[in-house]
């Protein structure tokens, strides 16, 4: 005989019940079935709400009852053929009348005992089992309704009654000895020795089915629900979770005990004793394999089977010098908690015995505190024990797997994955069974923690990378383009799933946790909400996603101001904006420090030479112990364009104008010509070489007469015209020597300067076309021939690809 249980969502509507009946029909061809059903989904909650409202003298309970009534009557009308409807409707009404009477009683006396609540709650399953059995009969099945209260006997602990297995087993065995083909039974409900209705705890229908499966030594227990098995994590929190193929009883128990709602934890015990296999199956996808819970995992099982979590946890810490070496302290602590029926979920004790830490449900805080304060009142008064420390808003996240005990390094991997993502661990416990490693973390970090661990232990090596991008202009849109094109490659080749979860320009911003569709981001962005840097940062912080990166494609000072906030929230920063790295040294250092302290990256390769690997190369040299002696570089595409095209027959003024028109310079070309931009770049290289330097420490040799710098841009061009001879002389002098003019940045022996130089043909800087950049590093390891990096140093496409590379570097 098989025992099947269909949960609340499986029987939520007439349409779903049709699916249940189809499954039962098919199964019944192979043998007899006991079919337990839950209440229609949501009904138990509604019943509790009605009872509570009634007990508070709130007439709204009647509305709730009406709603319950209408829902059930409607289901009957849809499910049962017209010919049988009136008798079924009248039975249903009878149950509903009884419910109404009970609630009215509660309303009148203004009190709701646990016993009465059980009577109220039981109606959910009594109604559903009756309706479903009638539907099965109408479908031609040889189906019988059996009230489980006649089979399952419990004590009188209403709300969570304990089963009297001896009586229950005997009654069930006798009954099912000669049962019909299909016996439909209400889950969740039972009765005490006086025949009063009891229930077995929320979610208890699973347990009812397991109790009977154990009693009759069923061939199998099938738990039919709305997911395709027990999954590696709660699918509502971890979208990448997937069904576990096989799992041991012990593992299934631990997973459910630590929050995997899919099975009510006590369910495992009755089937474990008789070694009855349990299948968790999906009513809505019956062909999916589902999960087999059985005696032992097979040989090639994974080490970790699942991850689960419990929210609303409080941590109590009892500390004090008086506890060291004194036997019986923990005994007194646990006894005090037990007396108040406080359930201890996790315990840790430091090896110094100086403190004991226990995790309990937040709801039990007051009971626990009162119990502990009174138990240790004397010790607290003589200061042998400190007053109890209570921390709340915590959660337990647990890794479950039988094989953990034989494998080193699981906990290390767990802690470092959490740590890398800025998740602080408050306490740790490894169950003595070693099936379980639990950590206590802040409740706000749970979603992130579960996803981080899931990624670490199950998705490997697919990593999720979550980008918050500001700046969607030239560089930004190229970056989005490249991201879109590379998505497949990244997933297939690098096992990296890169999603843009936040996107903003200076006016609008949009978010999508699952990743903004990059096909039509422009349109989406134009319909976004108004951009606010603070709101954007807050969103990224609150979402608290693992592997988050803030990408700044702007040149804005305001954006550069908020980097620190991101870094402090364990979000990496990748930017082509030079402002932060070239700001006061103190600020640059503190950003680097913040990145280090929070285990994230602050990367700005594109600050110098766009996509060229200049900073990366420099970092590699310095990290491996090389020392930078000298840097010579041409770092301005605009100045290069100007001096490459400045020749006899063309005036300097004309060429600067052309550069301006073609967009090679800033709108005010003086920003380029005075070398401010180049100064910033060499400053960043010097700092990355390990030298503390400020902008003002860099000298610049002006090559333009001073009055060119005064007044408007128009005035500037006028002055260039006026001083034509000055520039022509510079050119003629250089070309007379066979040399070329280059705007060069130099760092040598602790001193830095920028300025126009005349460069001889044998110098590496001589041959530099178009907008190319070049950097020469002379170091201890490259003392004679410098290490040279050369190539296109400007342009949206190459800048975007440099940013792209930095983004990838944050996780690889
Ligand atoms: P039923 O009504 O069938 O008893 P439940 O709602 O009690 O179903 O349990 C199924 C739900 O449990 C799933 O819809 C899922 O959201 C949740 N759940 C939490 N953790 C897990 C897990 N590890 N595996 C599968 N489901 C889980
Ligand atoms: N209907 C009960 C509840 O919601 C029992 C169950 O569904 O398992 O808790
Ligand atoms: Mg359930």
UniProtKB/TrEMBL annotation:
UniProt keyword annotations, A-Z: Amino-acid biosynthesis, ATP-binding, Kinase, Lysine biosynthesis, Metal-binding, Methionine biosynthesis, Multifunctional enzyme, NAD, NADP, Nucleotide-binding, Oxidoreductase, Sodium, Threonine biosynthesis, Transferase
Alphabetical GO biological process terms: homoserine biosynthetic process; lysine biosynthetic process via diaminopimelate; methionine biosynthetic process; threonine biosynthetic process
Pathway: Amino-acid biosynthesis; L-threonine biosynthesis; L-threonine from L-aspartate: step 3/5; Amino-acid biosynthesis; L-methionine biosynthesis via de novo pathway; L-homoserine from L-aspartate: step 1/3; Amino-acid biosynthesis; L-methionine biosynthesis via de novo pathway; L-homoserine from L-aspartate: step 3/3; Amino-acid biosynthesis; L-lysine biosynthesis via DAP pathway; (S)-tetrahydrodipicolinate from L-aspartate: step 1/4
Keyword Transferase: yes
Signal peptide (residue range): none
UniProt domain ACT: residue ranges: 399-477
Cofactor list: a metal cation
PROSITE patterns: ACT, ASPARTOKINASE, HOMOSER_DHGENASE
Cited InterPro entries: AceGlu_kinase-like_sf, ACT-like_dom_sf, ACT_Aspartokinase, ACT_dom, AK-HD, Asp/Glu/Uridylate_kinase, Asp/hSer_DH_NAD-bd, Asp_kinase
Reactions this protein catalyses: L-homoserine + NAD(+) = L-aspartate 4-semialdehyde + NADH + H(+); L-aspartate + ATP = 4-phospho-L-aspartate + ADP; L-homoserine + NADP(+) = L-aspartate 4-semialdehyde + NADPH + H(+)
Example GO molecular function: metal ion binding
Described purpose of this protein according to its UniProt entry: Bifunctional aspartate kinase and homoserine dehydrogenase that catalyzes the first and the third steps toward the synthesis of lysine, methionine and threonine from aspartate.
NCBIfam families: asp_kinases, PRK09436.1
Family per record: In the N-terminal section; belongs to the aspartokinase family.
The protein's assembly and partners: Homotetramer.
Protein known as: Bifunctional aspartate kinase/homoserine dehydrogenase I
């Amino acid at each position: 005989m098989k025992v099947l249980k269909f949960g609340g969502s499986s029987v939520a509507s007439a349409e779903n019940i049709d699916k249940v009946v189809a499954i039962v029909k098919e199964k019944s061809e192979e043998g007899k079935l006991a079919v337990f059903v839950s209440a229609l989904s949501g009904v138990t909650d509604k019943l509790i709400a009605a009872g509570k409202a009634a007990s508070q003298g709130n007439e709204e309970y009647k509305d709730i009852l009406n709603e319950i009534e209408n829902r059930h009557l409607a289901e009957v009308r849809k499910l049962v053929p017209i010919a049988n409807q009136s008798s079924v409707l009248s039975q249903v009404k009878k149950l509903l009348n009884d419910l109404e009477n009970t609630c009215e009683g509660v309303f009148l006396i203004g009190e709701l005992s646990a016993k009465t609540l059980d009577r109220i709650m039981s109606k959910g399953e009594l109604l559903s089992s009756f309706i479903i059995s009638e539907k099965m009969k109408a479908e031609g099945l040889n189906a019988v309704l059996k009230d489980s209260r006649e089979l399952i006997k419990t004590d009188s602990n209403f709300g969570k009654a304990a089963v009297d297995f001896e009586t229950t087993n005997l009654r069930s065995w006798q009954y099912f000895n000669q049962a019909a083909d299909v016996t439909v039974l209400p889950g969740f409900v039972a009765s005490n020795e006086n025949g009063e209705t009891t229930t077995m705890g929320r979610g208890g229908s699973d347990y009812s089915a397991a109790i009977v499966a154990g009693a009759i030594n069923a061939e199998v227990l099938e738990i039919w629900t709305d997911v395709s098995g027990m999954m590696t994590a709660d699918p509502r929190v971890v979208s990448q979770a997937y069904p576990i193929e096989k799992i041991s009883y012990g593992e299934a128990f631990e997973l459910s005990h630590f929050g995997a709602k899919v099975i009510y934890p006590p369910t495992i015990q009755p089937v474990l004793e008789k070694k009855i296999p349990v299948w968790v199956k999906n009513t809505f996808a019956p062909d999916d394999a589902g999960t087999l819970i059985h005696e032992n995992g097979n040989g090639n099982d994974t080490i970790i089977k699942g991850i689960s979590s419990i929210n609303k946890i409080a941590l109590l810490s009892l500390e004090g010098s008086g506890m060291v070496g004194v036997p019986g302290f923990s005994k007194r602590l646990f006894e005090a908690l037990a007396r108040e029926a406080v359930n201890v979920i996790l315990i840790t004790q430091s090896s110094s015995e100086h403190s004991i830490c226990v995790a309990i449900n937040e709801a039990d805080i007051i009971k626990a505190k009162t119990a502990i304060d009174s138990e240790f009142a004397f010790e607290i008064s003589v200061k042998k024990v400190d007053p109890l420390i209570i921390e709340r808003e915590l959660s337990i996240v647990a890794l479950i797997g039988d094989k953990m005990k034989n494998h080193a390094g699981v906990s290390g991997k767990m802690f470092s994955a959490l740590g890398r993502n800025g998740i602080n661990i408050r306490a740790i416990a490894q169950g003595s069974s070693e099936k379980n490693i639990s950590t206590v973390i802040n409740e706000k970090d749970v979603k992130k923690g579960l996803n981080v661990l899931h990624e670490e232990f199950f998705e490997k090596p697919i990593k999720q990378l979550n980008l918050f991008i500001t700046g969607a202009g030239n560089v930004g849109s190229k970056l989005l383009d490249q991201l879109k094109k590379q998505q497949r490659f990244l997933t297939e080749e690098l096992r990296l799933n890169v999603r843009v979860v936040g996107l903003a320009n200076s006016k609008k911003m949009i978010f999508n946790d699952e990743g903004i569709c990059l096909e039509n981001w422009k349109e989406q962005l134009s319909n976004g909400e108004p951009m606010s840097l603070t709101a954007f940062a807050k969103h990224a912080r609150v979402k608290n996603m693992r592997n988050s990166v803030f990408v700044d494609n702007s040149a804005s000072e305001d954006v550069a101001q908020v980097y620190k906030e991101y870094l402090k929230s364990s979000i990496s920063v990748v930017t082509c904006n030079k402002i932060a790295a070239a700001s006061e040294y103190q600020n640059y250092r503190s950003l680097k420090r913040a990145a280090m302290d929070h285990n994230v990256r602050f990367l700005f390769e594109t600050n110098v030479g766009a996509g060229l690997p200049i900073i990366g190369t420099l970092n590699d040299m310095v990290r491996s112990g090389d020392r930078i002696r000298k840097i010579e570089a041409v770092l301005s595409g605009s100045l290069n364009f100007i001096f490459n095209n400045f020749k006899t027959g063309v005036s300097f003024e004309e060429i600067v104008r052309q550069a301006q028109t073609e967009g090679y310079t800033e709108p005010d070309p003086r920003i380029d010509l005075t070398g401010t931009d180049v100064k910033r770049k060499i400053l960043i290289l010097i700092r990355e070489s390990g030298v503390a330097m400020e902008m003002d420490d860099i000298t610049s040799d002006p090559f333009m007469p001073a009055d060119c710098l005064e007044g408007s841009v128009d005035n500037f061009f006028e002055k260039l015209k006026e001083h034509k001879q000055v520039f022509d002389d510079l050119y003629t002098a250089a070309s007379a020597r066979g040399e070329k003019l280059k705007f060069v940045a130099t760092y040598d022996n602790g001193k830095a300067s920028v300025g126009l130089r005349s460069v001889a043909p044998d110098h590496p800087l001589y041959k530099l076309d178009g907008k190319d950049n070049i950097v020469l590093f002379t170091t201890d390891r490259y003392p004679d021939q410098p290490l040279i990096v050369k190539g296109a140093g400007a342009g949206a496409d190459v800048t975007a690809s440099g940013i792209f590379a930095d983004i990838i570097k944050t996780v690889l």
